[in-house]
Amino acid sequence: MSLTRFLAIAGFVAVVVAAVGLEWAARREGSRIPRLGDVAAVVMRYEAGGLPVGRLALLGFWMWCGWHFLAR
Amino acid sequence: MERPEEVWAERAGLWTRPYVMGAVFIPLSLLGGLFPSFSLAANLYVLVLGGALLVAGMSSRMPKIATPQELPSAVVWWLIPVGLFVVVEVATYAGGSTLDSPTLSLLADPLLESYPMRSAAYFGWLIAFWGMVRR
Hints:
Chain A is mainly alpha-helical. Chain A has 3 helices and no strands. Chain A is flat, with a radius of gyration of 17 Å. Chain B contains 6 helices and no strands. Chain B has helices spanning 4-15, 18-32, 40-57, 79-94, 104-111, 115-133.
């Protein structure tokens, strides 16, 4: 395995570890860190000109992820 | 006689139960796992299923769970995994997205070739939808 491939894999693993660690920290009693679901909730409530752009953006990103990883 | 909103609340409550959503998502995941990447069937399945769920998800009638109105300043901690992901993804993409510089999708492709992993990925995708749409 080349060094660059190792670094790329290590980087993506670090992203997962950081996200899981933060979610774990957020779920602890009295934590000031919001859960990922709470962050998503606030983003999804964002509206512009009466349009639910936050909700549309996150659900659109979800759909793109499904298409990109499962169909393409 | 029950009022219409009570009937709706009862029906919505039924849909929030884990075993009900599991009974819906597991067959959909097992079916989706049958379609290989880059096939017409996989494209149609994701676009039709995802499109239908996206439309349902835009509805304000979906059952919601309580969430905070504002985020505390500690939300900036979430920039660590997001920023790190952007750095690694951009660096590997700039490196040509090759075997020696793989993007996330290039690393995921061989894993998603097997039926169990592919079905599990579909299930994760659907669970992510359910987690978002209830907020």
